[in-house]
């Protein structure tokens, strides 16, 4: 199991895991005395922003040179990569040897600590090069490996109406792309082979320090485990539906949790590539199936009483003399007086753009991070066009009966079963991706840094990983099980986490990074020959000069980012209020979700007729 768990480890994590190892220097021709990066923790306060800029620029030049002869990837090549562009390697004997020396291979897992800290600078740099093998095409599929985004959109459109739904979803798409560009720009400024940026929190640390990194890591961990919770519960419900409620509900959930625990042992993004491709095509298959069936059959009326937008809004879904009200649509927000329900619908919408919190993790494993921008824009366009068409199509046929997740929206049992089986498979792949990154964030920042646990490159760290994966998935199950309203839980994650990572944190970080870049005056910067950072001033004066510096266009961009940041915070606050209110109401009303730990499915007897 330990071998299955760790694909050789990640050499970019702290090799020593010991802050006291920050000693030693290396001097050479043209190189000043400096603390060797392999002797530092992944973050060190002695490294200044100007140093990150300098080595990032060197790394970008080297990456451009190394990849100059690679096959060029066009826009269509991102969607359908050829065998020549799917995988690249640095292909040098030195790189392979140095990677093994740093614990990437199995032979050196038990290597003594004194040997590890004698790793040379060239070996350290080669290890950083060797781990970066993901392509732009792989990132496209990883970004679109999403399960909750497309299948909550019909529900969202039903809560806000045609016009607001299209406008909001389009606005979220454009802004998500803009935020992805900001995140990419900051990564390109601060990541290098010498000082790799591994996570979203690392970007924050290099700009604002630990005061920003720690809250971001906590929030990222919360989002990822809540996402796994959502998928765990929705998978359990889907399996119980496929089994026609004849299989104990808790058993349904446990089966899928165990599957997640086993698949969760996969670690590198490169090995997720095939599964991510498969998940995207399964999602498209679900969309095609549910649209075709919805166009030729009635809505799932009995399920609508529990899961539909009409149920959330208090809108006409109750039969009169056995006849259900006709499908209804609204051009604007439905006039039901349920402002909370509409807000929660909007929070379901932003789930489609919830991948920004792991963009840095994707870029950190790319052979050429410059290609990420192309993959990201194609992904955002795919999400906007395909997801919106799907949501609008289902809303057009099912109106207030639209359900989240939408694989439950069809009434014939055969279609319901096929859609839910595909949904379970695709959702499990997405949950495994989120769960692995989530646990890595927790383990690296709490386990290694605070609790002095062994790095994941060591054998003992690998064994701990195998043990912690089941604990992580069990905790995710418990969290999801105690919250009775699925759609409200989706809204909470969207408001408290996704809006922040996708819309408020990127401009906030960019304001700081760009201010530091603008504040640099002639004669300032990092001198590698003397290993010194020259600044003519410090403090608030420098920050003000940086914020107000540059051309008029740059000033307007900085001002826009401030407005953008504050607006996203306000929207997140409103969404959190709406979602938490719905959860409180669910507890007060004795929602069927409260029976989650029982053998009876929360939807049994309230979902569909098996005839």
Q: Could you walk me through the main structural features you see in this protein, from its secondary elements to its overall organization?
A:
Residues 149-514 form the Amino acid transporter transmembrane domain. Belongs to the amino acid/polyamine transporter 2 family. There is one protein chain. With 611 residues, the chain is mostly helical. The chain has 24 helices and 4 strands. The protein has a single domain (2-502), classed as Amino acid/polyamine transporter I, CATH 1.20.1740. It is 62% helix and 2% strand. It has a two-stranded antiparallel sheet with strand order 1-2. Strands 3-4 form a two-stranded antiparallel ribbon. Strand 3 and strand 4 form a beta hairpin. The protein is globular, with a radius of gyration of 25 Å.
Q: How does the SSE layout of this entry go?
A:
Elements: H1 2-5, E1 25-28, E2 31-35, H2 49-66, H3 75-79, H4 83-86, H5 93-101, H6 113-116, H7 121-131, H8 136-143, H9 153-160, H10 162-190, H11 200-208, H12 210-242, H13 249-263, H14 269-294, H15 301-307, H16 309-313, H17 339-349, H18 359-364, H19 372-398, H20 413-448, H21 459-481, H22 486-519, E3 525-527, E4 532-534, H23 540-548, H24 552-588
Antiparallel strand pairs: 1-2, 3-4
Helix pairs in contact: 5-7, 8-14, 8-19, 9-10, 9-17, 9-19, 10-19, 10-22, 11-12, 11-22, 12-13, 12-20, 12-21, 12-22, 13-20, 13-21, 14-19, 14-20, 17-22, 17-24, 22-23, 22-24
